[in-house]
Amino acid sequence: MGPVMAKRTLLVALLIGALLMGAFAAGRDADAGWSKDEIAQLQSLWIGNQAPLPADPSNRVADDPRARALGRALFFDTRLSANGQVACATCHLPERQFQDDRARARGVGDTARRTMPLAGVAHNAWFFWDGRKDSLWSQALGPLESAVEHGIDRTRVMHLVRKHHLASYEAVFGPMPVTGPLPQRAGPQSDEAGRAAWNALPDSDRVAINTVFANVGKAIAAYERQIRFGPSRFDRYVEAVLHGREPGADARLTADERAGLKLFIGRAQCTQCHNGPLFSDSHFHNTGVPAVKDLPADAGRASAITAVLADEFNCLGRYSDAKPSQCSELRFMSKDTHQLTRAYKPPTLRNVALRPPYMHAGQYATLEEVLDHYSRAPQSPAGHSEIKPLRLSQRERRQLIAFLGTLSGPVLVAPESAPQATKLSSASGGL
């Protein structure tokens, strides 16, 4: 090769090298082009930044493996219902992120609200959309006595535990309390006959029944505490960014997904409510979500304040294992009913693209409808909405939806896999 040809070959090689380096740099810039403040926000949302599972001082068996095994059995037991066909798992389906894909949950009857997913729920301070329960174990008790969910009462629960789960119960909580003869049905939330039977019981029997009932909730909570989210593509992407490395094939975000992420932590102001590794602040917000025709009026958090304070199973109650000093969330909660009218807890956005419909009563069928709502910011049916119109363009909405899809990941249950539901025919009638 002559000198001229060699020089040309070298120039071509240098040019190709420069082009390749430029392309590589462009790819890196797309992933590394985050400001210091933006990186801090990404880290705050990263699942690797999630705090360890918090203790529940109101539930002394919250992390007892025996309680978890009992709670798992109770969670899938359809005998804990009026018709023998409804278990906790009826609405909280393990294969569907422990929710049911319905606009409103359906037990023995139809409810007025959407089923919330259970993954990561142990990190919450308040439970249900309105926070009318202040612990995971007391939350588990509400559906059992609801006329449209499980449809039974606490005395019936005691009979069922005594007959079908006695050994497991006593291994965790000690001997079943001794009582006098008990009616088959009795409870303060029951029908007229059930309430009359409850009021006729001596106080010692009511305390014994309540103790077993509370323990059932504590066991179910021990199981539910283990349900958690695994890492999503978003988490693998953030981990790469935090370590200054190129995201792998299972961690890359498209241009639209990165743009949507920038909107999410920036102009769209999504992190005002959807922050932290669970993408929820677990507080209560009125965002102007419309009411559903033909459903009862729903004041949200405003109506739950009285309920949680009066709840005999709250953190300060007789059946809690906590000291009063350990119940700060309940003791110092806001009681501003005006500010909290139609305020609801933001659900986690992890796996949100996989579980339409959306909002507390399934008002919106698609994420497109949700973003249209936030873009327009309509007036709230009651109370004062916190949101202002975002006026998102169609392209921005598409980018946000693309980003939300990166939050999909596995739902994990440790350490054992979920069993099949124990189901009895409704014709079985007895315990």
**Which percent range describes the beta-strand content?**
under 5%
Task: Determine Rg (CA atoms, Å).
Answer: 26 Å
* Structure class: mainly alpha
Low-confidence stretches: 3-30, 417-431
Overall geometry: globular
| CATH fold category name of the largest domain | Cytochrome Bc1 Complex, Chain D, domain 2
* Name of the CATH class of the largest domain: Mainly Alpha
Major sheet: order of its strands?
Answer: 1-2
In total, how many domains does the architecture comprise? 2
Note the main attributes of this structure:
431 residues; mainly alpha; Cytochrome Bc1 Complex, Chain D, domain 2; 2 domains; two-stranded antiparallel ribbon; 15 helices; 2 strands; globular; disordered N terminus
Written overview of the protein:
The protein is globular and about 70 Å long. α11 (255-265) packs across α15. A two-stranded antiparallel sheet has the order 1-2. Helix content is 40%, strand content 1%. The model is unreliable at 3-30 and 417-431 (pLDDT under 50). It has helices spanning 3-32, 36-45, 65-75, 88-91, 136-145, 154-164, 166-173, 192-200, 203-224, 233-242, 255-265, 301-310, 328-331, 367-376, 394-405; strands at 227-229, 411-413. The protein has 431 residues and is an all-alpha fold. It folds into two domains: 32-53 and 231-305 and 348-411, Cytochrome Bc1 Complex, Chain D, domain 2, CATH 1.10.760.10; 65-228 and 413-428, Orthogonal Bundle (Cytochrome Bc1 Complex, Chain D, domain 2).
